[in-house]
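Hey, I was hoping to borrow your eyes for a little while. I've been puzzling over a protein and I'd love to understand its fold better. The fold is given in discrete form, as structure tokens running alongside the sequence. I'd be grateful if you could look everything over and explain what you see. No rush at all, and the record is pasted right below.
>
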Amino acid sequence: MKVQLVGFGNVGKSLAELLLEKRRTLKSLGLDIFVVSVSDSKGTAIDGHGLDLDEVLECKKRQWNNCNKYKKDYAARDAIKQVQSDVVVELTPSTFNGEPGLSNIETALKARKNVVTANKGALVTAFRKLVKLARDNGVQLFYEATVAAHVPIFCMVDSCFKADEVLKIEGILNATTNFIIDEIEKGNSFDKALNKAIQDGWTETDYSDDIDGIDAARKAVILANSLFRREVKLEDVVVKGIRQIEAMISESRRSGRKVKLVCEIKNDGDMIKISVMPRQVSLDDPLATVNRGNMGLKFTFKTCGEVFVSAQFTGTMQTAYAVLNDIVRTAPSRICR
């Protein structure tokens, strides 16, 4: 299987490390995965027979100096069009307009290549368009890593609840805000908790998407469009962040509850209601067990009732694993359906 990586930041580098680590396991599954191109914002490294990923990682550290397989200014979209591959893995940063990820994914699907992505922005901007484009071209579009890293969501629902109906989803989908809330519950101020989140690598210096609820809202849009088969946009989500959360945490402490930034998607007849906002949850609610930087979701199904799934989140390697699992799923005999 020939794979192209587009976007070589933290998740992309973690994926390369994971492919090296899991090489023997993948071969035991009947999969020989060759990365034939790696594109970042400045150019593309190419080898049609498969790049040496150890060498690629070292070259990236050196900002591609003295790397003869790296072509400066060779754009990702050109590589997608011109380099033979089976799967394009799109890992560029999420943006409000979806670019450049949206154009990269469209280019790959039109070239009849399977796509695996962790790019939330592209799916929020044009989910239905991309799904239709994949279907029309007879290829697959997988996006497990877009919502909650390695927490199983889309594959689980598609595999285990295909004949059931999702009525409601409640989830803690942003690791940064959950970490900050946990720190405030320990007695830290909001500012101290935020600074610790930055220092410990839970958020970027520009943290507004996290604490204002935008990142979680993007994930809620993807969930609604995928699992409820709706045409939802970011502006359809009622969003409130955690900047003024200290008073709520003090109140919840007195009442024996916990505060969480909860995404809720509810199928209300012909309407779908989506919100992201801080909420007090009782200690017997499974969401109360999702602490620190972890994430989890509580599904309510029409027949099966409540199903809860969560996982510890420690960093980009787990997001990279979700991407790797989707790559494996593109192999016809391994599709999770």
About this structure: The CA atoms of residues 66 and 215 lie 38 Å apart. The longest strand covers residues 257-268. Residues 2-150+317-334 form a domain with the Rossmann fold fold (CATH 3.40.50.720). The chain has two domains: 2-150+317-334, 158-312.
